[in-house]
Sequence to fold (536 residues):
Amino acid sequence: GGGGKGGGGKGGGGKGGGGGGTDDAPVTALLPNIPTRGSVSANEYSFYRVPVSSTNRSLTVRLTSLSGDPDLYASFSELRPTEHTAEFHSGELGDDALFLSHYDPRFCNGTREGDAGCSLHLGVGGYMVNASYSLAVSFGEESKLSLISGQPQEGSLEAHAWQYYTIALGGGDVDQIVVSLEASYGDPDVYIKACPPAPPPPPGGHAGDDACPLPSLEDSGWSGTASGGDMVRVADSTGDGWCLQCTYTIGVVAFTRSAFTITATSGGPADHPTRLLQQGVPAHGQVGVGDYVYYSVQLEPAQDVWVTLTATSGDPDMYSSFVSTAPSQEDYQFAARDPAATDELHISHSEETYCKKDGRERTPCVLVVAVYGFEQADFSIVAVQTPEAPVQLQDGAPQQVAQQGIGEWRYFEYTVGALPPAEALLLKAGKNCKSHDKYLGHFDDLAACASACEWEEDCAFFEYGTGDKVGECYAEWTASDCKEGWEDAPYNFYALAQTKGAFTVSISPTMGDPDLYISKGRTQPTEEEHGWRAVS
Fold:
């Protein structure tokens, strides 16, 4: 891909799998703002389609990994986009996202206002192993993405920006919603407001617009503003505006640039609300004395599973089952109840009861984990299916490992997000470098274009439009002197100033002598290949 101004982007690329023929693979229709669950086999694809109207100005596609490592591919022209045919792709380890603006010349194949719209085609590829995921498409900056009870949803925001979500209560015996906001980095806060059902329109009239104002810093019924992530219990006794048959609007605002996972879980006194775990992503929780908090994780039947419970206060225990939907001290298959700060379950796939119920294989394979409060406790819980799979570290939050044998490795991943904003250094005015480039979007100011370059992999130079091209932003893969040559054009050529920052990684052994190796590029640093180390 690539090409001149207004040309295509990188296209294809990434690490997605190959797979067999896709010409006859089914294509599933998506509804905007409604997440859908799916799964895909290793090196294969699942395909989706979503309509885009002529009034849509931008859209966001979010792929939340629940297990494995799915990758995201998109196209306005290819019905079944793959690694080799996609116009847009995201192949990060874990969650993926695409932000598409109508300023991009590829948006709707270049159609403009007044046209009938188009369709965006999506492909989800299974990289190396089978994967399960949640996929959602939203339009516009103030669109509200529906949350499904207990199902995590990935998100990211620039500083001071908002993202909105909704979860509806259907009445019955529901008496609370627990909203959990896990920050991968940055400092997102959450504000929540109840919206009663709209009255029916008068005879011959029409239903009015959404009369329920969005939650804000000044107007909300419940809020969570702790540094890092937040957990908010929405109930009649904890805030203002609780009602059944209501829809609750959840606003997440980034105090600093942030990436996060949000989960809303509803339930009543007789229910066992269960929160879905993303493999490799710690979930934080609280449990009272004698109470249970429930989690589930979808597994591959041919792989072991490790579940680690890290207590930051109190003494929580773990009870798990492939059979019971609410395991307990009296009803469980596997347990970990060490009085130490860390409990870890290692369940081998060779266990006779692994992924089985009544002697039959469970499809899908789901393990339910109950965290029991032997004492009132705060904790984090994480599940992985291979020791080599990295566990995400969250800023300032400890992650413990129960036991590690001699010569064994455990891997972790940390995303540096809260650095000073990117700066731009003007190198050439009124010139376009005839190098390989990529369209990054249309931005109202230079700082936003510099920030987009900072987020683009290997982007060190960029161009920002002037005159009739003002706002157009392109990443340029070249050197400062542009050996490819210059041409007169309404663009200024900039270098991205190197942001300066630092972070600290601490390892505190409770026994033995673990060593620490860190790499910026390698997912599995070694004694021979690493950037930093601590081996005292």
The two ends are 48 Å apart (CA to CA). The helical segments are 446-455. Residues 427 and 526 are 39 Å apart (CA to CA).
